[in-house]
Amino acid sequence: MGYFPRTTEPYQRRISEREWHHHGPPAFRKLAFSLLDMALLTGVTLRLGRAVLLAYAGEANSELFLTSLLAGTFFLFLMVTLHLGNFPIRHWVWRAPVFGLAVGAVEAGASLLLISVGREPYGSGQAAFGDWLSMALMIVPSRFILVVVFALALGFVVQGVRVLTLTSEERL
Q1: pLDDT at residue 130 above 70?
Q2: CB contact at 8 A, 64 and 115
Q3: Cα-based distances in Å from 105 to 19, 32, 44, 46
Q4: Which of 154, 52, 35, 27 has its CA nearest to residue 105?
Q5: pLDDT mean over 88-115
Q6: Can you list the positions of beta strands (E) in the chain?
Q7: What is the largest CA-CA distance in the chain?
Q8: What is the mean pLDDT of residues 49-59?
Q9: pTM higher than 0.85 for the full model?
């Protein structure tokens, strides 16, 4: 009999007091709010993932290379969404480009570190310090453009859903 109470009010009060003010793990919330921390985590993960995959699979396996490229892009978009979702759309105007530049800069820095330990793949061989500038000039703009275009599309979707939601609520 104790499993099915006749009234749910005390139970609802306990839930509201205990869980409505809980916004998830504090460490993750701090991480998701921090532009630099999210960019650092994203850039290092993308670069290390690419280096490990190319070191063990090589560019000869084009299906695996394409899959890793798509997975890396999905991960980048996921991290952008996790970060931008904590802020109003008007803040995305500056946060998205800065996030893209920061991810690109961190990824270029991780590439430089991998070059210094001899683990950065480049073409069919290993990258040298002379290759780093051309790699960085490819990485930073591509991450910037990907993040800005994705944030723009995400902003249109979010705003569209808000408009549709408001219109449907006004009809009721």
Answers
A1: yes
A2: no
A3: 39, 19, 10, 12
A4: 35
A5: 96
A6: 121-122, 125-126
A7: 75
A8: 75
A9: no
